Amino acid sequence: MMRTKILFFIALIVILSLGSIGLYERLTFGHRLTAYGSYAAWGLWVASYIYFIGLSAGAFLFSSLIYVFNVKKLEKIGKLSLYTALVTLILALLIIWFDIGHMDRFWEFITRPNFNSMMNNMIYMYTAYFIILLLEFLIVSKPSILIGPLNRVGSVRILSMLGAIGVPLATLFHGGVGALFAVVGARPYWFSALFPVLFLAGALLSGGALLTFFVAYLWTSKDEEYKGIVSMLGRLVLFMLFFYILFEWAEFSIPWWAGISGALGVHRESALLVLTGPFWWVFWVVHILFGVLIPLALLTSKRSNSKLVGLAGLLISLTFMGVRLNSVIPGAITVELKGLEEAFQSNRLVYYYFPTLHEWLVLFFVVGVGLILMYVGVRFFGVMKVSKNG
Fold first, then answer.
1. pLDDT digits (tens, 9 = 90+) for 255-311
2. Full-prediction pTM beyond 0.85?
3. Number of domains in the chain
4. Where residue 134 sits, what CATH number does that domain have?
5. Nearest to 309 by CA among 215, 204, 201
6. Does residue 10 belong to any structural domain of this protein?
7. DSSP of 8-68, one letter per residue?
8. In percent, how much of the chain has pLDDT > 70?
């Protein structure tokens, strides 16, 4: 255990040291060190944003199995589910804050709202979602702070009520993240009614997989109940993996076979870019091999145990970042009008994008913040410990 803590703190120091360089550069130079351009205006940070938001929504929806649908077998991971959702939400909002042009004006979403803007409306959903998450976590952690003389039955009712509000909210806001892309009619790859559904299915898969890893490797108890919880989480993740792959097959197979011109032709080119372009390995190696095939083998093996199930969860949750990158970048770097890529010459007018070192360093800073918050949860809130009310 001591060796694990030492390795953790060494990794944390390295990540934060590198991340601090990225933070300084971002605050000093703005977007000048990024690889963004007029065509590829979204990149690593936006992909990271939807990745963290997906983890948050998925973890929260797992907590709803406990507090809304009364799945008693998972009750002891309720606190962990809520805290994971809270931390990953903070990381999502932090990374997208770095992405906006004027970081100091973020508050104008509230003071000068535009209710015709999908992005503006998402801010209000995030605010309500954050409040619900925080209240639920405080009730689970220190019930006496919020419910006073009420007994545990009272706290359960409050949790159930908040969870019932949060379930449609989490579904709406993460489906809304997909809608942020789906309503961009100028980008045929994103302009799909399936995008919000794909985002929601991916959230359940990646968030559930991350929870499975946490329970399998970091949970304090290793008794039969622990094994039962890990086994149940593994079955749920396996089901959602099949479910997600079904949607992904639909998303790629239709434009693959539709050899036509126009907007659908551009959609097909974006899909081909994912499957056969210069970064084909992100889909076939990172996502399919390490994020689908190996986890499938681990989750369906007769020799599978809690550690292998946890490893499958870790692989799925980490490699899903590749899925999010393939959701964002190909749609931005596919040429909609043939010849446009040669009509103007500028470093900012190219249909190519690869994150700069600066962009990775900023992401390191955000990850470092997440590691600190998770350590705080483990050390001071006991999110990895078995408690009476989860």
1. 666 655 445 566 778 888 899 889 999 999 999 999 999 999 999 998 889 999 999
2. yes
3. 1
4. 1.20.1630.10
5. 215
6. no
7. HHHHHHHHHHHHHHHHHHHHHHTTTTS---SS----HHHHHHHHHHHHHHHHHHHHHHHHT
8. 91
